[in-house]
Design brief:
Order of helices and strands: HHHHHHHHHHHHHHHHHHHHH
Structural class: mainly alpha
Strand content: under 5%
Largest sheet: none
Length: about 425
């Protein structure tokens, strides 16, 4: 048996047996090293795991995880919901439109879909239920809208992509994700309004409109967070990693002194929770380094890319196949695992066809965003259904409906790369091909 095949079989077999993704990656890489190179090369395991996480931009990941926790519990979502209700007013589908708008704004703070899903669901689910929305629909809508956090800068997923793909400017990725993220969110608006009107959800005569001026003033500290982060990046005042530090500091100030929802005890608890979540993420990244080093040294990724090229020499055919593959992977794996497993295989294909790496990274992120609320795994759905107190399978029909609407946004960005590339080009970031 070839080392390539053995490495992939060990990884796949471990996953089927229920071994955590991190350890399945490490076992697959170690098996490939033993058979394809030499048992003596196992001495490189420590170096590879260390080198995988000893990268300055990765500091931003635990910090943005902490940022998501802070804004989730600082009362930010409640102030944004009230402001959005003042903007939209009572109407059929009004609360659904509020959900999408708030999720887009929250995505500009945390970069984490599950964190946004938890924060928005806690605030919106009770009011949506009182307005007549079915809980499965509300849970699916919040899960799908919060998935846009993977696109709206700052995005943890895009940070990881910039690490895996050499030479990609993270600032360009952040800028490129803005319009596709807004497009993905807007793709949900019309279906939500139509469904609410068709089913008679949320009687406009029974709703009340909060005072616009008062709600805007209360939401201003929350609204300023994305401006601070993105404005600092654009002006060169701080790097993406430093932006994460600024986001944490600003979130603590807002939560403790402005909204007064956080205490020092809460902060200590969030530090521990962020540490545990970050530890899981870093373990995956470190052990994936073994898999990546073995696959690169053995030529496994090159061989897989050549096998895919043998299917067709048409770039668009392979692009569609890749998007289907990533969508299926998104139904089973988290975003971090997908980037670490699939991206090394796709780099040779990007180079062969001259695909713009920034544009391609946004396509991957949009696809993975859909996977965050598409069964069977659907991490965002797990969060919202748990808060709603319903079984996950009750949301499947609505989740698939929203999946198709967001895939339409993905197709538009695929057909018109300028949707993603226009803003980073205007800002002067490097977005050129290889």
């Amino acid at each position: 048996m070839s080392p390539d095949l053995l490495m992939l079989l060990v990884f796949g077999g471990a996953m089927l047996l229920g071994v955590p993704v991190a350890f399945a990656l490490g076992l697959g890489g170690a098996a490939g090293i033993v058979v394809g190179l030499s048992p003596d090369m196992l001495a490189t395991l420590g170096t590879n795991t260390y080198n995988s996480i000893a990268k300055y931009p990765l500091i931003a990941i635990p910090l943005f995880i902490l940022t998501g926790l802070i804004f989730e519990r600082a009362g930010v979502a409640a102030s944004l919901v009230r402001f959005a209700q003042a903007l939209i007013g009572p109407r059929h589908g009004g609360l659904g439109l509020v959900v999408v708008l708030v999720c887009l704004i929250m995505g500009g703070m945390s970069g984490s879909g599950p964190a946004d899903a938890a924060a928005v669901a806690m605030v919106m689910l009770p009011s949506m239920t009182r307005a007549g929305y079915p809980k499965p629909f509300s849970a699916a809508l919040i899960a799908s809208a919060s998935s846009t956090a993977i696109l709206i800068p700052p995005s943890i997923a895009l940070i990881l992509y910039s690490i895996v793909v050499p030479g990609v400017d993270l600032r360009a990725l952040f800028a490129a994700g803005l319009f596709p993220g807004l497009l993905a969110g807007m793709s949900l608006l019309l279906p939500v309004w139509w469904l609410a009107k068709r089913n008679g959800w949320e009687d406009p005569r029974q709703g009340e409109r909060p005072d616009l001026k008062e709600s805007f003033i209360k939401a201003l500290p929350a609204l300023f967070a994305p401006v601070l982060i993105l404005g600092g990046l654009r002006s060169g005042l701080f790097t993406p990693t430093e932006a994460a530090v600024v986001a944490v500091t600003y979130g603590l100030i807002v939560g403790i002194f402005v909204y007064r929802q956080l205490s020092l005890k809460d902060v200590w608890g969030m530090l521990g929770e962020a540490g545990m979540v970050s530890g899981v993420v870093m373990i995956i990244i470190s052990l994936a380094g073994i898999f990546a080093w073995a696959g690169t040294t053995l030529g496994t990724f090159t061989h897989l890319a050549e096998s895919m090229l043998s299917l067709s020499d048409q770039g668009w055919v392979l692009m569609i196949l890749i998007m289907v593959l990533v969508l299926l992977a998104g139904m089973l794996l988290d975003a971090i695992s997908i980037y670490l497993i699939i991206t090394p295989i796709l780099i040779p294909l990007m180079q062969h066809f001259g695909w713009n790496p920034v544009w391609f990274g946004i396509l991957l992120a949009m696809n993975i965003a859909v996977g965050q609320f598409t069964p069977p795994v659907a991490i965002n759905l797990m969060v919202t259904t748990q808060i709603a107190g319903i079984r996950l399978e009750r949301t499947f029909g609505w989740a698939l409906f929203f999946m198709f609407t967001m895939l339409s946004a993905l197709i538009l960005v695929m057909l018109f790369p300028g949707i993603a590339l226009w803003l980073p080009e205007r800002l002067g970031y490097v977005v050129g091909p290889w």
